[in-house]
Amino acid sequence: MNIELEKTPAAVPAESQSEELDVVREELLPPVNEFKRFVKVFFKRKVVFVGFVLVVLMLLMAVFAGVIAPYGPYDQDLHNVLAAPGGAHLLGTDALGRDLLSRIIYGSRVALSVGIFTVLVSAAVGTLIGLIAGYAEGAAQVIIMRLTDAMMSIPNLVFSIIIVSLLRAGVPGVVLAIAFTLLPGYIRLVNGQVMSVKQNDYVMAERSMGTRKARILFRHILPNCLSPLIVQMTMMMGVAILQEASLSFLGLGILPPTAAWGSLCYDGYKYLMMRPLLSIAPGLAIMILVFAFNMVGDGLRDALDPKLRGTSSN
């Protein structure tokens, strides 16, 4: 006697059911504007909004320094040397009678210009080297990555001091020195992205069809590296600004009489007991700008990384 047993369907894993529901939900729901989603996630945390506002205010202050500043950065009032805060000089004057508030405002131009140029140079060169290392593999990749590891073993400030000593103080030398110290971060980041992306089917298909390596790198692989690159560049703005201020404080960065926040801190250090605001005010400006860029970088990371969307808390 043959008895046919009814076959029960195999249990579907919960993860598979969840993925199927997500697919159905995406098909049924209207498409979401990616820009609106980006803005919503980016400004989800209040601290990111504060950082964004601070960056915008600093940029406006740098652009319109000539309008905002009550005095020129080199104007001297020899009758009010080391004047206390208040009156015609809200933050007082330095040892040469120059208005401290005006020099801090003009110093934002130096900080932002050095930061922007440094990040652009280091990102461009580091991305190119990272693309080559990640795609080449073999001995070329090993040599590049070992040199990168060796560079990362040296503290950034020490490395930048060595390089700027070989060049010369001033904006070009400082930009090149700091950019060189930031290269390893970009090389490692892009190399890792390339190693991951080049295993995708569409890249393998392009390689099998004999597509030129340059076309594969810049058309198919590089676009997939842009999101982490943007986050890295934003974070490195704060690092570059802090390094420039450190070099200027040590007398190896932006030379006097140019108004740079690091050199302002050093000039005020000589009169710290008498006029502490001469060092505290530019130091606060450095802290605020570095904090602002770090917060903006965190917000960009949350908004551009799909794995982190919706996971950050207020």
From TrEMBL:
Membrane topology value: Multi-pass membrane protein
Keyword Ligase set for record: no
Record's keyword terms, sorted: Cell membrane, Membrane, Transmembrane, Transmembrane helix, Transport
Ranges for domain ABC transmembrane type-1: 108-297
Superkingdom of this protein's organism: Bacteria
Record has Amino-acid biosynthesis as a keyword: no
Coiled-coil ranges per UniProt: none
Family: Belongs to the binding-protein-dependent transport system permease family.
Entries under PANTHER family matching the protein: D,D-DIPEPTIDE TRANSPORT SYSTEM PERMEASE PROTEIN DDPC-RELATED, OLIGOPEPTIDE TRANSPORT SYSTEM PERMEASE PROTEIN APPC
Designated name of the protein: Peptide/nickel transport system permease protein
Natural source organism: Sporobacter termitidis DSM 10068
